[in-house]
């Protein structure tokens, strides 16, 4: 589902998405209120959600959408000057974020990877955006000592995997860096999500920054 107050933006996204054999746009909405009402009667797997819209903005809409029974995954559409909105949207339950001016290939990859639940949309834009957002994530909730209650049950290897997730690495990249198979990485990721009570990888990444396990400086060193 496409949610954006600019009809031309929705038309462009629809044209790209509907050109794919495995993807279909099932609905459009021009604001968050209309999106919630439509999703109450229309099943969708992924929602591309703009943050700044009239009536109900993308943040409140995301909060309401993710509270629906069997909710879709929400990808927030943003720009570099809206970092605070990204943090708020992720806190509201968004599963990922994408720059509005990203190439069509990145947008399609975002839809597929978020639907599969395998990635935090690990494209080049994600790392750049994390560099902007990471300091805000650290301040979005009271920081705890790294390895506090939220991370206490993680094994050393699971912590390593969480760090790599927070740096925007894909499962394939994590496997290469830690010299393990991709299947092993997927197992570790599943355990990290379960042990930290994270709904998806994005929520686990937020936790990594909020607890201080990873810092914005780590992103710069990893670039």
Protein model, in words:
This protein has helices spanning 7-18, 32-39, 58-65, 83-91, 104-116, 124-139, 156-166, 171-178, 182-196, 201-210, 216-222, and strands spanning 2-3, 28-29, 46-50, 73-78, 96-99. With 223 residues, the protein is of the alpha/beta class. It folds into two domains: 2-121, 3-Layer(aba) Sandwich (Rossmann fold); 142-211, Winged helix-like DNA-binding domain superfamily/Winged helix DNA-binding domain (Arc Repressor Mutant, subunit A), CATH 1.10.10. A five-stranded parallel β-sheet has the order 2-1-3-4-5, sandwiched between helices. α3 (58-65) links the parallel β3 and β4. α2 packs parallel to α3 (58-65) and α8 (171-178) packs across α9. The chain is globular and about 45 Å long. The protein starts with a strand and ends with a helix. Mean pLDDT is 84; it is low at 141-147.
């Amino acid at each position: 589902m496409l949610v954006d107050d600019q009809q031309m933006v929705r038309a462009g996204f629809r044209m790209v998405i509907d050109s794919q054999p495995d993807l279909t746009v099932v609905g459009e909405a021009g604001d968050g209120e209309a999106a919630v009402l439509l999703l109450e009667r229309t099943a969708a797997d992924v929602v591309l959600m703009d943050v700044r819209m009239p009536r109900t903005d993308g943040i409140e809409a995301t909060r309401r959408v993710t509270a629906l029974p069997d909710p879709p995954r929400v990808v927030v559409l943003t720009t570099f000057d809206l970092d605070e909105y990204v943090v708020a949207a992720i806190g509201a339950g968004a599963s990922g974020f994408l720059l509005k001016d990203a190439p069509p290939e990145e947008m399609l990859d975002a839809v597929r990877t978020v639907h599969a639940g395998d990635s935090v949309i690990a494209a080049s834009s994600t790392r750049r955006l994390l560099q902007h957002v990471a300091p805000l994530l650290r301040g979005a909730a009271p920081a705890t000592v790294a390895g506090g209650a939220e991370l206490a049950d993680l094994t050393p290897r699971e912590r390593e995997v969480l760090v790599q997730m927070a740096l925007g690495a894909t499962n394939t990249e994590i496997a290469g860096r830690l010299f393990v198979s991709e299947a092993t990485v997927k197992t570790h990721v599943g355990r990290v999500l379960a042990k930290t009570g994270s709904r998806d990888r994005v929520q686990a990444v937020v936790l990594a920054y909020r607890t201080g396990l990873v810092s914005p400086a780590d992103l710069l060193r990893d670039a």
